[in-house]
């Protein structure tokens, strides 16, 4: 996916992925980046928050697809921890039927139907997304009591994962992949869920203000880095393409101008609708 035009536009187009994974809807294709993910998450948040879960179905061996009822009609969302294509996609058709259900999908089918999707959030500019559900009625027989559930989607690295937790206690109920994760984290059922460690670089989205972004960027420019390099060094979640985009939008290469351009770009993506265009030259 190409972003809005600049001198740093990519000169190639990523083709569709095979089969049901590409249906003309927004998806994430490699290389996945946090800014594109933010656009997808914000699009889904605006359209799907408050929807009721009508059904849960498997999407391959490491994902799930949910049919949702919104005030505007029937919607859907697919969340997958596929190792080759981790992604969240709004508006896909239902995937092909699977002969067996994964433990995660089996549990989700018991506790999530008739639940309300209360929130979809991305942690700063990292590739970690949460979907929070509140059950309005008692779930199916044999399931846990009604309450709140949170689906953590870790859409990065060599072991992407989906983890369903009890939102009141953060206790892990089920996951696509169990056992040790990165660092000292464990993802065993019944253990408290610990999110991935935050990146060592600053997160421009969490910093919030233009002044804070400028303060984080200034030392890198003062050390002699160019605009694109300074942006990459200072902030998590900025690929070369996005750093080029920010530099192209800035009026000059001072910390104040670059910070203003980055803050404005984040606001544009968050407020939506995000409408990227492809420029061929």
What would your notes on this structure say?
The protein has seven helices and nine strands; from the N terminus they run αββββαβββββααααα. With 281 residues, the chain is of the alpha+beta class. A five-stranded antiparallel β-sheet has the order 5-6-7-8-9. It has a four-stranded antiparallel β-sheet with strand order 1-2-3-4, with helices on one face. Helix 4 packs across helix 5 (227-234) and helix 5 (227-234) packs across helix 6. The longest helix is centred in the C-terminal third of the chain and has 17 residues, at 255-271.
Q: Supply Rg.
A: 20 Å
Terminus-to-terminus distance: 16 Å
Helical content stands at: 25-40%
* Biggest beta sheet summary: 5 strands, antiparallel
Spatial sequence of strands, sheet with the most strands: 5-6-7-8-9
Question: What best-fitting shape do the alpha-carbon axes yield?
Answer: globular
Average predicted local confidence, pLDDT: 84
Task: Find the structural class using helix and strand composition.
Answer: alpha+beta
Summarize the helix and strand pattern as letters: HEEEEHEEEEEHHHHH
Beta-strand content bin: 15-25%
How many runs of DSSP E, i.e. beta strands? 9
- Poorly predicted segments: 1-30
Number of helices: 7
What topology does this entry show?
Elements: H1 34-48, E1 52-58, E2 63-70, E3 73-80, E4 87-90, H2 103-111, E5 115-122, E6 128-135, E7 148-154, E8 161-166, E9 171-175, H3 204-207, H4 210-222, H5 227-234, H6 240-249, H7 255-271
Antiparallel strand pairs: 1-2, 2-3, 3-4, 5-6, 6-7, 7-8, 8-9
Helix pairs in contact: 1-7, 4-5, 4-7, 5-6
